Predict the 3D structure of the following.
Amino acid sequence: MKKLLYSTMIACLALAGFDSCKPQDSDDHSLGGSVIPQEALSLSVSQVDEPKQTTFTLTNNSQQLDGVTYYISTNGTKVTAFPIGASTEITVKANGPVAATLYAFSGCDQKMFVWTKDVDWINTEVGGDDKQWLGYTEGTDLLADWKPDNNSWFSPSDWSGGLNPGIDGDIHSGLSFTIPEGTGSDQWQAQIHIEHNGPKLSAGKTYDFSIAIESSADMEGDGVTVKPQLEGDDNTFFSDARHKITRGINVISLADCAGFDGVFKLALDFAGAPVGTEITIKRVFLTEHNAANVTGDTWAFDYSSDNNILKDQPFGSDFRFWFADGGWSQVADPDYEGDTSAELTLTMPEGIGPDQWQGQVHIPFDNVKLSAGKTYDLSLVVVANGDVPGMTVKAQNDADDNVFLTADRHDVSANVPTAITLVDLPGFDGKFRMCLDFGGTAAGTTVKILGMYVAEHK
């Protein structure tokens, strides 16, 4: 019977125009049932994005009508019963259009509703990095239902304004525009304002924010300004940092940002982008701070992997600090929380000096030994509420400061989760120690070190 029902439905759907019987004096018709209003058909759709695939969940939110049954097709051929409240998933692993059709049938009437989506964010390039990340997903998205106004102010170098980038679309399906002829190269001469009707935030909370920007060309200069801010007050914001943009998809994320009391607005500036550059803004995400976002947003190795020889390892007995002022006189140790490789939070003390090695943190791992005959992969994630200029990461032999996997310095920008990831590093024979240095970081800055990872290179 089910096979016959499907065949009958497909045959009926093939009839041109979906002709309905003409209404009689009442809602009862010669074949029974009721006329179905088009607005009765409704689907709600949510999506989960992962590297190399996107999963859509479709739920039937249609009206309950006497004598009306609902069906859905997600592949263009098979039709399946789909009662009100039912859900189904569509997982796609390639860019391109995806569609589903919802059907409603009564004794003498039929209606259909078609949902379509153009998937264009899945990394399918040959040789593409399996770890490509497309933005935060953990926590409740405070912008999921945001219906903002999208405004622009583009100007020549004389600040006279009047240039039109031709904004089209929205932040959910994609907000697109083109850098117009004559746009100046100074910061704030290519402004996009996404504002009004935003969620109200709180000063007592912290927030995670991410945005994906697709550009048809590399941007010159210091890059795009991303400024999540308080509406009506340009001096209150999460960050107003600039970020390098290259051709393709660029994801910019901010974590654990101090909130403010008032309505959220997003200001962007694209000064320096070449004339004619086509830009699309998507995946704007905002949530109350969620620790799962911080380590999930980067190119770091997976801390929870069984390959990680630092996983769940406690700090050794010689865990210690050495902080000094500009004259190399020792100052107070930083306040800290945490005693394992999973997470360490530090607050920089008063008097810390400006030079390298004036903010040392020594983390021995008593149960971890490396081998000179092997090579290793290493990563950790750093999040700070202020800039950390030239943080040193020295993964070394606990007994010899001159033997190490790496001793490089890395800049960390305020509220920007930064993954320090190194691969195929020649090992050494001996116990492992992680030495970090924060010389030059402002007093009071809070720095989180998350997900320390070391594994044999494979």
